[in-house]
């Protein structure tokens, strides 16, 4: 594999088939291409990606669960000329940190949020996430989500797109070569959005978790198709040219 | 003659913070400290700094976590229930050794309580309100001038020790208006460079990581805890702020801090006119607690007065090794002591002993 300067080259702790590895690499490649590493400050979120700093060769702050958007808002305000990357999982971003997510987007903070949605809690061992699908069995929805007033999957792109603050919102998936290509282009646009000072950019990435979905890697790719029924891919907001 | 300006204690903290070079404030409205975010929203942008009205206390304290890691002097403020919400972030800030200033303008509790002044957050402040073994430097002002002076000094303590500093005020000191001399800022301590740890992009250097998770080995977190405890010991050795009033010939010592100490001062003067030899020991640094000052008077009779049901009294007893008679007067929920009550209590104690 080609050398990516933004990555340290350490082997990653992620499980076989985990989407985080792919998203990490896409981000790192883009940061190399766009020359962002030396001006970047990124978050390490509570959850599977907490050891982000073991892999990324740049300034990183490990945040409390759900508080990434607040921490990164402050860092961007202090250093408006730096590149601020908020990397978050679904529990962090859409459950315990929903408040922070919503208000940071609403303020239109000029940061980029990469939201890795794998519809489950990975680090803690497979509990229900805010984005767990209806009927999906997890360790805390043994009969499938929806049998105990759990509500439905939280659609974050849709929620945020009604706000005035965000400039760019897109949902992608890393389930195919084409999906990877689209994800990379979406994240490139989101990064550029911040560099151009257009305001809040948000890319949700549907991502595999074969271990906690209790599937082999091939079947986990198929599960992403199911996720797309609830989380359609596409651009939900793009007002970059109006700013 | 130095010019003095009339202002509220809450406003004095804002002026002191900006003079001390604080360029970032994030907070959430709660009575009785609303003048702090209000004044900050007006004055901080004028001074070239950043003001954010956060959507929640948790967000506000995490903005401070970020701003401090980014390398600037920063501050948040709140009142009791709001400070309780901030405890998560305070533990991370202490664990990550990030300097910042937090002001608690205490009100009655528990729960939503009321908006009268209180001193019932003493335990939370000095014993560690969040999870894990950590300490805040806790300073207790009793006048509006002290709200100004201690807030200014707090930034130096925070940077010098790389530790959060809490200004533990109350609804009265926050709301009362007194003349204040707006002193110029001059560091009171050596301020170490932050260039070795702040996050501002890794151009020309190795990346910096601010974190509180230590999984590298079984004893990595233990070592971090030992490092923190060594720092706390150093702070204990070096920092002791305490005032004494008429203690030279005192037979009975009143221990009180903040606004309570001022009421006690008046009561001491009144009691002395009646022939009772009473003095005051007023801790200004609540952590580190001025143990050595108290220890000088081991075996003497003490009266601890607090606007709580008895919290600082535990540190007084520890410092005195429970020698002598230690009396208490106080209540939570917005009870204020007055001179007459304290004098009556003094008479009572004399009657008993």
CATH topology (level 3) name of chain A:
Rossmann fold
Looking at how many chains there are and whether they match, the oligomeric state comes to heterodimer
CATH class of the largest domain in chain B: Alpha Beta
Tally of structural domains of chain A: 1
CATH topology of the largest domain in chain B: Rossmann fold
| SSE order of chain A | HEHEHEHHEHEHEHHE
CATH architecture of chain A: 3-Layer(aba) Sandwich
What's the domain count of chain B?
A: 2
**Total beta strands of chain B:** 15
Largest sheet of chain A: 7 strands, mixed
Task: Give the N-to-C terminal Cα separation of chain A.
Answer: 39 Å
Tally of helical runs of chain B: 12
Major sheet strand order of chain A? 2-1-3-4-6-5-7
Shape of chain A: globular
Helix content of chain B: 40-55%
Poorly predicted regions of chain B are: none
Helical percent range of chain A? 25-40%
């Amino acid at each position: 594999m080609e050398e990516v300067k933004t990555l340290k080259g350490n082997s990653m702790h992620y499980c076989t088939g985990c989407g985080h590895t792919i998203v990490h690499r896409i981000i790192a490649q883009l940061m190399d291409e766009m020359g962002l590493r030396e001006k970047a400050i990124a978050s390490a979120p509570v959850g599977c990606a907490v050891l982000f700093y073991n892999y990324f060769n740049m300034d990183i702050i490990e945040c409390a669960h759900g508080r990434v958007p607040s921490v990164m808002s402050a860092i961007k305000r202090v250093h408006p000329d730096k590149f601020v990357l908020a990397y978050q999982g679904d529990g962090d971003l859409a459950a315990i940190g929903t408040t922070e997510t919503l208000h940071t987007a609403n303020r239109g903070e000029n940061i980029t949020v990469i939201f890795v949605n794998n519809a489950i809690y990975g680090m803690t061992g497979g509990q229900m996430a805010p984005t767990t699908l209806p009927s999906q069995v997890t360790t805390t929805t043994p009969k499938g989500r929806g049998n105990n007033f759990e509500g439905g999957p939280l659609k974050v792109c849709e929620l945020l797109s009604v706000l005035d603050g965000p400039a760019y919102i897109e949902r992608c998936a890393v389930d195919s070569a084409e999906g990877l290509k689209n994800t990379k282009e979406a994240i490139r646009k989101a990064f550029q959005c911040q560099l151009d000072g257009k305001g809040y950019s948000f890319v949700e990435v549907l991502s595999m978790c074969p271990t906690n979905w209790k599937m082999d890697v091939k079947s986990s790719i198929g599960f992403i198709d199911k996720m797309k029924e609830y989380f359609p891919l596409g651009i939900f907001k793009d007002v970059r040219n109006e700013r | 003659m130095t010019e003095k300006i009339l202002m509220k204690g809450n406003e004095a903290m804002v002026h002191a913070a900006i003079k001390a070079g604080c360029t970032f404030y994030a907070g959430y409205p709660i009575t009785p400290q609303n003048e702090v975010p209000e004044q900050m929203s007006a004055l901080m942008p004028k001074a070239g700094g950043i003001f954010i009205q956060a959507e929640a206390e948790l967000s506000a304290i995490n903005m401070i976590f970020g701003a401090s890691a980014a390398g600037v002097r920063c501050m948040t403020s709140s009142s009791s229930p709001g400070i309780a919400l901030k405890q998560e972030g305070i533990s991370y800030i202490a664990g990550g050794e990030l300097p910042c200033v937090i002001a608690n303008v205490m009100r009655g509790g528990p729960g939503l309580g009321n908006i009268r002044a209180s001193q019932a957050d003493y335990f939370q402040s000095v014993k560690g309100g969040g999870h894990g073994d950590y300490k805040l430097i806790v300073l207790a002002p009793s006048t509006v001038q002290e709200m100004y002076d201690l807030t200014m000094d707090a930034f130096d303590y925070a940077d010098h020790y790389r530790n959060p500093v809490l200004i533990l005020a109350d609804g009265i000191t926050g709301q009362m208006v007194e003349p204040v001399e707006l002193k110029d800022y001059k560091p009171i301590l050596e301020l170490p460079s932050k260039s070795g740890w702040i996050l501002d992009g890794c151009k020309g250097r190795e990346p910096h990581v601010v974190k509180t998770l230590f999984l590298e080995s079984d004893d990595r977190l233990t070592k971090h805890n030992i490092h923190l405890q060594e720092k706390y010991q150093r702070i204990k050795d070096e920092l002791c702020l305490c005032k004494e009033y008429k203690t030279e010939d005192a037979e009975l010592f009143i221990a009180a801090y903040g606004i309570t100490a001022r009421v006690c001062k008046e009561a001491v003067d009144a009691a002395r006119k009646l022939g009772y030899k009473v003095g005051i020991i007023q801790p200004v640094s609540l952590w580190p607690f001025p143990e050595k000052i108290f220890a000088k008077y081991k075996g003497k009779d003490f009266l601890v007065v607090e606007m709580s049901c008895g919290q600082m009294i535990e540190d007084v007893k520890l410092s005195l090794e429970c020698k002598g008679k230690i009396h208490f007067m106080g209540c939570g929920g917005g009870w204020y002591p007055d001179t007459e009550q304290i004098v009556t209590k003094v008479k009572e104690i004399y009657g008993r002993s």
